[in-house]
Known about the structure:
By secondary structure, this protein is mainly alpha-helical. Helix content is 71%, strand content 0%. It has one domain (4-54, 68-373). It contains 20 helices and no strands. α10 runs antiparallel to α11, α11 packs across α18 (277-305) and α19 (326-338) packs across α20.
Amino acid sequence: MIDIGEFILENALLWKQIGMWIIGALLIYLAVKRQMEPTLLLPMGFGAILVNLPNSGALTQGEEVGIIDYLFDNGIANELFPLLLFIGIGAMIDFTPLLSNIKLMLFGAAAQFGIFFTLSMAALFGFDLKDAASIAIIGAADGPTSIFVANFFHSNYLGPIIVAAYSYMALVPIIQPPVIRLITTEKERRIKMGYEGNRVAKITKILFPIVITIVAGLVAPKSVSLVGCLMFGNLIRECGVLHGLSDTAQNVLANLVTLLLGISVAARMQADAFLNWQTLMILALGLVAFIFDTVGGVMFAKLLNLFNPKKINPMIGAAGISAFPMSARVIHQMGLKEDKTNFLLPHSIGINVSGQIASVIAGGLIISLVSSIL
């Protein structure tokens, strides 16, 4: 007679691998059925199944290099994919709403509060400082920056961190609204904000990415490669002489790199390294970071309202996370739900793009801070 307990123990790895097949299937379901970040979650889910087949040829076996390990070593380990992706993202971003009201940059900075709060929390829960820093960046809702920081510190939890970062990006419409409603009143949510739509000169749009790169490089040198790629993509968009390259960066480059990045991440989603209590802790701490980033942006707007006679709808502060343009759309829809004549999109878009810049700079500051301590 077969001893069930002994059978389970002897095949513990197989059961974990089956568990990863289920997780992979769930990611594919969310991508296809729920259309949640499909360009990333679908290849990530398929890759999770691929690398958790027994003796998978997709992974390095002896002297035979597996394709997933090869892609990881040459695309993520050397930070190539995140940097190329940032060029594509930069080409997608129109900074006009931000440049029309440059004060919106302050909201992007305020919405990074959750990163630094979660860094302390993760350290208290027993993660070493490098892993704690990598986990904290999840709160920025910025996948490439999460990958960049975790890879810089050679984090042992790169797979869970990336899964958490992109999952919470996809869950913005579910997570942010209840948090915002909890900390705002109906009267605050119904505040109307006019939009002048000041014209922004072309030279300003061209100079902006150059100036931001220089300032970021001086303030947070470790962030300059990420900021530089983001701003370079935007410069391609705004220069007016590289239309074909701009379209390619926004569509072909961004989509192709995201697909390769998603399936490459699977190299760190092997059952033994992924299915453990640390993964659950990372998911929980990532959610804490995400929520507190949202709270930080909203509370900053409420603080300004104490001194500003021209009231700000505090909901727009929540768009300071880096989930562009999803967070801006969520805030706009919440405003319309409260009052059908309340159009918050220009303001939330401006804050959302400032969050893109602020999250990258925050990542560079975290790297500099932790590196100086260690």
